[in-house]
Amino acid sequence: MFCDRCEAGLSGAGCDIPCSAAANCSDSGMCLEADGSCECDAGFVGPACGECDEGLFGPECATECDEAETCSDNGRCGAGGVCLCFEGFIGVACDICGDGLRGAACDVPCDDRTNCSGNGRCIEVAPLSLSLSLSAPLFLSSAIPFGLT
Predict the structure, then answer these.
(1) pTM (2 decimals)?
(2) If DSSP states are collapsed to H, E and C, what string results for the chain?
(3) pLDDT tens across 101-123, in order?
């Protein structure tokens, strides 16, 4: 210990805690000699600077995740650029309605018994209904008609 500072590579009150950017701060920050904590480089967060800041991902935490483009405005960017979908949405880009839901906001329930008389499964065919200019969603049944096998 040199008066009020620890020797390089050590930290803590007794200068007995190893302190290095590689070991303590995932090589993405500077180890503070006072207490061994990390001061993270731009784009990195966490106690050991091992996570990307919100909206960033990639090995250097330099790639931006645009929620409108990456997550279809239906989710937020999580670690590694993976979308964390809002309620009702699923899929890599949060662009699919979850089971039993339909509509632009994936907030309209679709019940097989009600919409398909219990003889099929609800699926929304948005591109077809839009191209036909239908005012209501089109539902198809996955049931095989009687007599056909």
Answers:
(1) 0.50
(2) CECCECCCCEECCCCCEECCHHHHCCCCEEECCCCCCEEECCCEECCCCCEECCCEECCCCCEECCHHHHCCCCEEECHHHCEEECCCEECCCCCEECCCEECCCCCEECCHHHHCCCCCCCCECHHHHHHCCCCCCCECCCCCCCCCC
(3) 888 888 888 876 677 777 777 76
